[in-house]
Amino acid sequence: MAGTTPALDAAGTEALDILARARADRRPCPPVRTILPPGDVDAAYAVQSAWVATQLAAGDRLTGRKIGLTNAAVQAQFGVDQPDFGMLLASMDCPQGARVDTGRLLQPRIEAEIAFILARDLDGPDIGPDDVLAATGAVAAALEIVDSRVAGWDISIVDTVADNASAGLFTLGQERRPPGGLDLAACPMLLWRGAEEVSRGTGAASLGHPTIAVAWLANTARSYGRPLRSGEIVLSGSLGPIVPVVPGDEFTAEIGGLGQVTAVFG
Q1: Is the separation of the CB atoms in 217 and 67 below 8 Å?
Q2: What distance in Å separates the CA atoms of residue 49 and residue 32, rounded to the nearest whole number?
């Protein structure tokens, strides 16, 4: 992983162990915000970085990033007021057509997003939306399956950051489009569970424009020594409220100009 993994103090080590046990035992844990310094996002990112390092050491591979909490409706759901980011690993990628195993998840929920596939590094100072567009090779419709390890999704910003921004799994639609000529802020999103519409929104739900969200990520990740690299996938944030998932569910999202993406849960 790009950047240096910071050494954890006793509190960070304890938080890392609690979250790791929740994953291994398949049992949600209490919030870790009572262990880490109150409101200390830097300490939470250190825990996240340490967990990702263990996965890479075990043979997993970094494939991109996810931006969380960009949507005002999602922020309201969880009582937080700022975005965060996490790391996408190869093991999280669910190909279209493959059934998603809910046994890999603890408390899954789903959201529709626009994925950016980078053709160039985003590693300069003061990255802006135009820089994001210039560095993007293609965009695609995506579904992110988020999954908190904290019981009851009782999370603060510290809890979700330490928990790799509540990352679970993700899947990308097959259609790829160059971003030029697309109005990514205005594009409509509809999400169905079977024939029932369960969420809707537009690209503007992600910090006003998805490129603004990716620019925020590029600048923030660089400040933590983890700049965005060519070839990475960036999930740019939810376009509508997130929806609980149970085995047997089938979700389809359609994003204007980007086509459809589907996830079927077993």
Answers
A1: yes
A2: 15
Helix axes 41-57, 10-25, angle to 10 degrees: 50
Structure token pair of residue 222: 């660089």
Query: Cβ distance 234 to 220 under 8 Å?
Result: no
Pairwise CA distance, residues 132 & 206, whole Å: 15
Give yes or no for residue 71 having a pLDDT over 80: no
Taking only Cα atoms into account, the Rg of the chain, rounded to an integer number of angstroms, comes to 17
> β-pairing, 136-147 with 84-89?
unpaired
Give the pLDDT confidence of 217-253 residue by residue, as tens digits.
999 999 999 999 999 999 999 999 999 999 999 999 9
103 and 84 Cβ atoms separated by less than 8 Å = no
Taking alpha carbons only, the member of 141, 98, 162 closest to residue 239 is: 141
How far the first Cα of the chain sits from its last, in Å, is: 32
Of 127, 145, 172, nearest in space to 266 by CA = 145
Closest CA to 19 of 65, 50, 61: 50
At the fourth CATH level, the homologous superfamily of domain 10-264 is Fumarylacetoacetase-like, C-terminal domain (3.90.850.10)
Q: How would you list the strands of the sheet with 250-255, edge to edge?
A: 196-202, 188-193, 250-255, 259-264
Distance CA 13, CA 46 (A): 10
Task: Report pLDDT digits (tens) over 10-57.
Answer: 999 999 999 999 999 999 999 999 999 999 999 999 999 999 999 999
- pLDDT at residue 1, rounded to an integer: 41
Give me 164's structure tokens. Answer: 């790799």
pLDDT in tens, 97-143: 899 999 999 999 999 999 999 999 999 889 999 999 999 999 999 99
